[in-house]
């Protein structure tokens, strides 16, 4: 299984929703809270080109945000990305 990283903050409902999907699928992920680690916010922006959370990565592949993650799941494209 590939490494998953999610940049988030503690109060974001979209972050919670994305993590709930990952948890439901039994996936392990690394969470980077940009509130607790403010320097990581700039890292997230540089890697994703976006300023909003969540920003989700599978290995070095930027998936996008919560809606993008759910779109991949509904199109049955998430599991192949994780196992390829």
TrEMBL record:
<dbReference type="InterPro" id="IPR014025">
    <property type="entry name" value="Glutaredoxin_subgr"/>
</dbReference>
<comment type="function">
    <text>Has a glutathione-disulfide oxidoreductase activity in the presence of NADPH and glutathione reductase. Reduces low molecular weight disulfides and proteins.</text>
</comment>
<dbReference type="GO" id="GO:0034599">
    <property type="term" value="P:cellular response to oxidative stress"/>
</dbReference>
<dbReference type="InterPro" id="IPR002109">
    <property type="entry name" value="Glutaredoxin"/>
</dbReference>
<dbReference type="GO" id="GO:0015038">
    <property type="term" value="F:glutathione disulfide oxidoreductase activity"/>
</dbReference>
<keyword id="KW-0813">Transport</keyword>
<dbReference type="InterPro" id="IPR011767">
    <property type="entry name" value="GLR_AS"/>
</dbReference>
<protein>
    <recommendedName>
        <fullName>Glutaredoxin</fullName>
    </recommendedName>
</protein>
<keyword id="KW-0963">Cytoplasm</keyword>
<dbReference type="GO" id="GO:0005737">
    <property type="term" value="C:cytoplasm"/>
</dbReference>
<keyword id="KW-0249">Electron transport</keyword>
<dbReference type="Pfam" id="PF00462">
    <property type="entry name" value="Glutaredoxin"/>
</dbReference>
<dbReference type="GO" id="GO:0045454">
    <property type="term" value="P:cell redox homeostasis"/>
</dbReference>
<comment type="similarity">
    <text>Belongs to the glutaredoxin family.</text>
</comment>
<keyword id="KW-1015">Disulfide bond</keyword>
<dbReference type="InterPro" id="IPR036249">
    <property type="entry name" value="Thioredoxin-like_sf"/>
</dbReference>
<keyword id="KW-0676">Redox-active center</keyword>
<dbReference type="InterPro" id="IPR011900">
    <property type="entry name" value="GRX_bact"/>
</dbReference>
<feature type="domain" description="Glutaredoxin">
    <location>
        <begin position="4"/>
        <end position="63"/>
    </location>
</feature>
